[in-house]
Structures are given as C-alpha cells and as structure tokens.
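Worked problem 6 (solution included).
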Amino acid sequence: MPDSPEFIPLNIAVLTVSDSRTLKEDTSGQALVDGLTAAGHQGVDRQLVADDIYRIRAVVSTWIADPRVNVILTTGGTGVTGRDGTPEAILPLLDKQIEGFGELFRAISYEEIQTSALQSRAVAGVANGTYLFCLPGSSGACRTAWEKLIQAQLDRRTRPCNLAMLMPRLRE
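Solution. The predicted structure is:
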C-alpha cells in the first residue's frame, strides 16, 4: 500500500426514518447529505420511510443488494419509544456488527448531551460488503456521528487504519 493513498469517493445512500417529517423538512438527512458531499463522496439515493421495521428493511435490503451502494446511513428510529425500531430492522440484515461504533458514538455524545446519550441505540455493521450506520434522528447527532466518527473511517487516508481500506476484503 502506498504511503499516501488517494481519496476514493464512496457511493452513499441516506435513509430517514420518521413518522412526522417529509424530505423537505428532513434536517438530519440533509446534514448527512451535506457532510458526505463536502467530504467528496457521492450521494446515490435518499429516501424517507415511516417507523416500520418492514419498510425500513425493504429499502435497506434493496441498497444492500445494489453493487453501486458502498455505505448506507440511516437517521431516526434509534431511541427507546414504542415506534423506534431501526436497530430491530437492521440488525437481522447484518453479516457482522461493528459494536465499537455504538459504544464510541455514545461516549462522544456524552460530552455533548451528558446522560441523555444513553438513550441512543446507534448501531453499525456490514452486510453484503456494504457498511451500515444507524444514527439518531437529531441533526446534531448526525453531525456528531459524521464529523467525529464516520467521515474519517470512510477516508482511505486516515491512519493508522480505516474502514474504507477494508472494503475490498469485506466479501472474503
């Protein structure tokens, strides 16, 4: 591997899970699109679905099966109320869970929102060679996750290691 790898833009899909927002009102999904675009990645699709595990799975499964999609970011549905079901929708689809993501996200969030961070059930993993990150529905949480965790891990130049450099080996 060269000492200074080149940046390789990834194709990223964004899904907002909400019963109350429209795409026009979706500041969290927009924050993710703005972040990934500013970092040089390509937004390949953006959708909004209701808090329903089967609707979430339908969209995410389609993206997992699409070889053009490298990464899926979801926002919303990671809390503890009755309608919050994004982790339940996503976890059965994963080949491998990345436990450290949720742990680290909550630790970073604690510095910003104190004990409220424990309410997040943010998760991440890999399915069919595609990375998935399930984030809370607040735009602040989405910016925190993107800026402090995900962006660097999707950049091959991040040292000592990153998730992007592992992509060719995900389907071994």
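Discussion: The mean pLDDT is 93.
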